[in-house]
Amino acid sequence: MRARITLLVAAVFMCIACSKQEGKLAPIPFQDDFERSELGENWSGDPGWRIKDGAAYSAGTSNRPLFLKARLPDDAVIELEVRSESPSGDIKLELYTDGKNHESGYILVFGGWKNTISCIARKDEHGHDRQELKQPGLVKMGQTHHLKVVRRDKVMRWYVDGKLLLDYYDSDPLRGDGHDRLAFNNWQSHLYFDNLKIRKATPKDK
Questions:
Q1: Count of structural domains within the chain
Q2: CATH number, domain with residue 173
Q3: Per-position pLDDT tens, the chain of length 206
Q4: Sheet hosting strand 66-68, strand order edge to edge
Q5: What is the pTM assigned to this prediction?
Q6: Is 206 contained in some domain?
């Protein structure tokens, strides 16, 4: 009995320590226009990420993401603007991650593999179960694209510039502790992420 109590107390203190280390979380609904000089306390990740020209920017971090310190609702609507200044495109958005690691949630790749394939993948962007669209040149270098993702229950729908790009059905959707964070990601492209908006989805959202 004493051993169990000791383990329980230790677990509680570990949770408190982790909470303090993470710091305050941003509330939902959330929005960020990046009109400032520093990323600030709501963001954490590789030092290759910074603010440039009023957007979150990276010139390539080899899949080391920039994480938002906010808990995504189980059902959510996420909107943002993205731009690649590289012919390879390769824009990556990661959703329902653990807030620490690449490929810990869903990976949405727009114009990956030298701007030839776009996909929604679960924990492995090279996985056989990913939903993909093989269509070269979707990412237009220097053009701002509007992304919108709607996740409700077991279905995720991904819109680009107002049109449905891909949807993904997951019989066991990632959610809750360890699967509730958002991240921007990049391999070796010059990418800009801007005007992020997150809110809880409603029955009207499709």
A1: 1
A2: 2.60.120.560
A3: 454 444 343 443 444 444 444 579 999 999 999 999 999 999 999 999 999 999 999 999 999 999 999 999 999 999 999 999 999 999 999 999 999 999 999 999 999 999 999 999 999 999 999 999 999 999 999 999 999 999 999 999 999 999 999 999 999 999 999 999 999 999 999 999 999 999 999 999 99
A4: 43-45, 66-68, 181-185, 91-97, 106-111, 117-122, 131-134
A5: 0.89
A6: no
